Each structure stands twice: as C-alpha cells, then as structure tokens.
Amino acid sequence: MNNELLQLEKEVNTLTNKLVDLKKEIGKVIIGQEETIEQLIITFLAGGHALLEGVPGLAKTLMINTLAKTIDLQFKRIQFTPDLMPSDIIGTEVLEEDQNGLKHFKFTKGPIFANIILADEINRTPPKTQAALLEAMQEFEVTYSGNTYELDKPFFILATQNPIEQSGTFPLPEAQLDRFLLYIKIGYPTALNETQILKATTSSSKVTPQKVISGEEIIRLQQLVREVPISDDLIDFVSKVVRATRPENSNEFVNKWVGWGAGPRAGQAMILTAKARALTQGRLAVTLDDIKVVAYPVLRHRIIMNFRAEAEGITSEEVTKHLLSSLK
What we know:
Layout: H1 2-29, H2 34-46, E1 50-53, H3 60-69, E2 71-72, E3 75-79, H4 86-90, E4 91-97, E5 103-109, E6 116-120, H5 127-130, H6 134-139, E7 141-144, E8 147-150, E9 156-161, H7 174-177, E10 182-185, H8 191-201, E11 213-214, H9 215-227, H10 232-244, H11 252-257, E12 258-260, H12 264-280, H13 288-299, E13 304-305, H14 307-312, H15 316-326
C-alpha cells in the first residue's frame, strides 16, 4: 500500500511539474494574465468548457491559440458570424458515387471534431447555430440525420465574446451559459505588463511555444482531479453558497437583487474546479481558499440579476462576494 502511495505521489509530482512547464511556455507569448491562464488550465483539468469575455485587443484568441500549441492535441478555430449555419460546425452529408456507380450519402465531419475548439466571438451567430454546440458540450457527441458520432477525448470548447458591442450580437441563453464550467473575464494589463507587451509585439523577434503535455496526460490529470479529497464541511459550505443564491432560500440582499439563483450544476462545478486548483498548486486536498477563488468564475453566469440590479449596476460578483463573507 505504501508503495502504491509513493507511485501515486511520484506520478502527481511529474504531472504537476508539466503544468508548471505549460504555464512557462504560455508565458513566453502571453505577458501577464496569470489568473486567466490558471483558470483556463483549471477548466482543462476539470474536463469542462470556458467562456472568455474581454474588450478587443486583450489577446483572448492568441491566448487560446498559444495554449493549444503547448498541448499535443488537435486544435480547430471556428469564427462565428451571423451567416454561420449549424452544418458549418457539425458537418454535413455529401452525395458520393462508388466504383460501381451507386450513389450514397457520406457524413463529412465539421470542425467540431477536434480536441480543442476555439469558438471565436460566439455571440455573433444566431441562437440556432449557437445551439449546435449544446450536445457536444454536454454529451461529448454529435447527432446528425439520426446517427450519433462520438467526439474524441479530451474535448474542450473555449469560447470568446466581446462585452461592449451589442449591435449584431446574439446573447447566449442562460441554459447554454450554464454549460460553460467557468465564465472568465479578462481585464486590462498592468502598466508594467503593457510596457512589456508593446516592446515584445513591435520587434522582429518571434517566440514559438513548445508542446509540453499530451492528451493522455491531460486525461490522467482529469482522473486525478476527481480523486482529490474534499472534507464534508467544505462540501456543506459549497451547498450553502449555491442554495443561498436562490431568492426563496436566501437573505434580504439576495432577495433584493437576484431574479434566479444557481442550480446544482454550480455546486458540482465549484467542487471540481476547487479540486483542480488544489492540484495545480501541488496539493492533494481542497481548502476553503480554493473554493472562494473559483466561486467567482463559477457563479458569474449562473446568478441571474433582476431588473432593479441591472438598473443600479449591481453584478453577480457582488452577490458572490456578499455570500462568501456572510456564510460560515
């Protein structure tokens, strides 16, 4: 038994060291944004999908492209536009003729059949096309013309959207937002980082990140994440936080500002991402700090504010902050 534990500890150390190398390779191209990069890696380890939001020019697309280059997996980018059709994502049937002159339909796979999908500007396409991702995100499979096609694993959708342009956009429905494990907001760089960005991007030097981790190692890390222990007290705390986001179960603050609270998927996401964060920190146990850090990107899109909150500029992050500080 002790030998098995030593082997497990050695495996964990090897894999977590590769995560350190992963961050270093991404850092060669992306300056700053350490919190965002960590949240993307947490999304991978927890086996979910992420939605990134930020104003133009904050390297959202470059960040995902760079991340994909450091992992030995197939990567596809889908640029979402108003005229994009579901078949442009999933694939379509084409009529072919065999050697005997017989004609038959053959399914041609779309770009969704890859390991890492960049859904760029996902809110630029109508709901019909957005919904084409739902089955893939939840079931890791695609159904077309009555046939079901399994997607390769690991499978991640990393979507981006622009928060400031409303003209010609189609906001994601709440049901689809809930499929994203984390909703990551990217802020402006610090003064020092911005100076470094200007220097690095206006010179002739070009850095190419190296692949440092394989798909099999990502899958193994996903298995290890689920084995990270979490105490019953912390699970109870997560349950209290999620239930407290619902107006019928909560205090005056939530009743005043929240229209709809988070569902059970929020609690599952919070525990899984807290486990993943613990592993990225080289720990084999979840702490209260892990839960408090991941609570914001987990609940950001799952707490639906009412009209009064929107009118007065009260956000879901303020609700999360209030609940984390008031609940014990």
